[in-house]
Design brief:
3 helices, three-stranded antiparallel sheet, 147 residues, extended, DUF6641, 7 strands, alpha+beta
Length: 147
């Protein structure tokens, strides 16, 4: 008996690119991860900054070098008059509707902020906010066509 006969052989084709909705989900999950890390840093009393690499070209020699840059992000949460923390999800500069007409999540205490962000990440992975994201992307498209 051949060793290959013990395996299940199939024809397959690896996808070369993500679907647009999966790309949007991944983009939003990455931003939520940054917000989560920023919330952890603020809870520990540290500053919140991230690093990214940029490739720059020297005009004189034509040589390309990678430079590490630090950047900071704007936090998506605030404290209201009642002392409760409100977390809003942004896609670009716009707020994502989580429920019909509602864009914020109320959190009783700042300690639960990271848990809430992780829960929102899982909801996005499951596709529960696709409708709100698609509404924003459609609005972007309409604005571009009007010009």
């Amino acid at each position: 008996m051949s060793l290959l006969q013990a395996l299940k052989i199939v024809t397959s084709k690896r996808p070369t690119q993500l679907t647009p909705i999966q790309h949007r989900r991944n983009k939003l999950i990455k931003k939520l991860h940054e917000q989560s890390e920023c919330a952890k840093a603020r809870a520990e009393g540290r500053d919140c900054s991230f690093k990214r690499y940029r490739t720059l070209k020297n005009k004189e020699t034509g040589e390309r070098t990678q430079v590490e840059q630090q950047y900071s992000i704007k936090q998506w949460w605030y404290t209201n008059d009642e002392g409760k923390t409100i977390f809003e999800i942004r896609y670009g500069s716009r707020l994502v509707e989580i429920a019909k007409g509602k864009t914020g999540v109320e959190i009783d205490s700042p300690e639960k902020l990271v848990e809430t962000i992780d829960l929102l990440k899982r909801a996005i992975e499951a596709g529960e906010l696709d409708e709100g994201i698609n509404a924003l992307v459609g609005a972007f498209g309409r604005q571009i066509k009007k010009k």
